[in-house]
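Please produce the structure of this protein holding S-adenosylmethionine.
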Amino acid sequence: MNDYERFIAGIKKLTGIDLSLYKEAQMKRRLTSLYEKKGYHNFVEFLRGIEKDKSLMNEFLDRMTINVSEFYRNAKRWEVLQNKILPKLLERNKRLKIWSAACSTGEEPYTIAMVLSNFLPLSDIKILATDIDENCLQKAKIGVYPERSLNEVPPDIKAKYFIREGQFYRVKEEIKHTVAFRKHNLLSDPYEKNFDLIVCRNVMIYFTEEAKDYIYQEFSKSLRPGGILFVGSTEQIFNPARYDLEVEDTFFYRKK
Ligand SMILES: C[S@@+](CC[C@H](N)C(=O)[O-])C[C@H]1O[C@@H](n2cnc3c(N)ncnc32)[C@H](O)[C@@H]1O
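Below is the modeled complex.
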């Protein structure tokens, strides 16, 4: 085993996270810059440090999970969700089962709630939001964001669902109540079933082909027939039929 492989094995034992399913060059680059900054010379030394020091473990987790997000990220896609996808889903069923997978600090599931509030009372909206990173989930539950995270939020929604606190914006409780946050590793935890809509954006880019294939298979099994998978704007699925999916619109796939 080389230095990085020994690191991968050690991290898997410590955390259950399998780094071999993340693109290697990218991951190595990010982690090398962290361990060098901390004064380590190789991955095995870095692993020994992580084993002893909880705060270094947190810094490692923070570096390996890239948490950037924003409300209404790629706003045009959210317009398609609002104008085309949701009306069709709601024709069949008013109580949609929705999952924001790899939700980071909550901007995505809260955006889903805000878009859905154009159709339904907030009391009828229930969204499951998951991420591998517990620190993110804590921040998501607090729901306070810098102004730059809100750049794409339509003005009426901003006025309705955010409270300004100095330089920051707090999401109103009524929106927070629509989302249940939970820790979930897409590569190892069981997937719930019968979703009408799964939103999973800007995480597949970090995974190997093998890992992507596994996750798309699982998403497909988790969607009910007619359910929709909404992916990130650089994450088109090369061969959707392989997963029993068909293109509904760019970046939206329907389970057959
Ligand atoms: C760039 S953010 C995407 C956030 C949001 N979906 C968006 O598009 O703005 C990627 C997220 O994927 C999460 N992540 C990475 N590996 C994961 C895994 N194996 N299972 C679940 N989440 C994971 C990270 O913790 C991070 O919060």
